Amino acid sequence: MRWFDFDRHFGPLNTNCVEFSRRYGGLLEMSFTVNTLRTMTRSCEMMRDRVKSVVFKPEDRKVLDITFGPTAAAELVGRTPEALAKAEKEGRLPQPKQLGNGRRFYNLEDLTLIREALHINPGKSADEDAVVVAVQNFKGGVGKSTITKHFADYLALHGYSVLVIDCDPQASTTTMFDIQPETLIDEEKTLGNFLSPRSTFDDFRQSIQDTAWPTIKIVPSSLGLQDAEWDLTATLREGGQAVREGLQRLRIGIESVIKDFDVIVLDPPPAMGFLGLNVMAAATGLLIPVPARQLDYLSTIHFMETIADNIEILEENGTPVDYGFIRVVCSAYTPSKPGEADMWKMMQATYANFLLSQPILASEEIKNATQAFRSIYESKPSAAHATYQRCRDNLDAVFGEVLQQIREQWPSQSISKRASDTVASVAA
Fold first, then answer.
1. Per-residue pLDDT at 3
2. At what angle do helices 338-351 and 294-316 cross, to 10 degrees?
């Protein structure tokens, strides 16, 4: 099943775009090449707006309609269905919503209320810092933005407060969170404006925006990020302190909100300029996506060497870097393809304990959800429910390994602390 019927929804649009080109294209006093590109851009924008109107209609912004049965809700908050039912019967929790057939269900807000009422805090303590995870690889097309979006949603489902910072001028992650930079962002209060040494905007907190998820906020990307890249690069002419400050701009911004979130996820650009160096300097953990393809594997060798060289550059310029963890994740893996199966074995031999034990399996469910500007955590199955569930279980396993690495960075989430939490959950 497709997530939309193209012919039904978009048949007239092609005619409209052709008419737009005929009517206005020839009026522009530009070269044929520029005129053609401008016309194509307008056509793409029209299609994008039509897609969004179909996917999210009648709302202008994404609205989450995620619900959970008693078993799923209990698993997400770390309790048993019986424990939740008992707390509801005793009045410690409000009675859940019910369908017409009497079946109980919960939404995201209900999960938050349950955690608050039962004093369940899966994240860090108030005096600890957020873990800053960079989903980094210089090569495009490795699933960087898709992983960022899905990982943030996974964390939110499990009760963690998340800040996503889109550092890629392409703004793919920003769009996935249903924010259109060209229409919804105050250009004076953007990440690019904060990072630029020429700007007077210095309140990083004001660049943070809400999302449809109650516990996820985002610093969106915008075209101004490319300008910031040029401005930061220009500090090389000044040298010394100017370069050092330019390399630490993102870190400085994050430090102002470091205790407000459990996890901060960075989506860097697929290149190593000043934006990429800022991401490396700000991160405290590194997740490297590598598809099981030979070219991607070979390019990652260059990435590893380059990132080590650039960390040395950062440290030589007074910006020490010390990641709490570095993990490689195999992305978009199809085990039935012999070439990819061989690459998976090679990755296991190469990266050993640095490789997550579970690869992210290639799935039409992820592709279809992404086309609808969603993750699979906020979308309905596009095919058989079993197929959808396999995809979700796979992502849960992958992200669960990353979450384990994150929790180990907080002293309050030590093994002994987790053991006491387990006892408390059984008692509840």
1. 47
2. 30
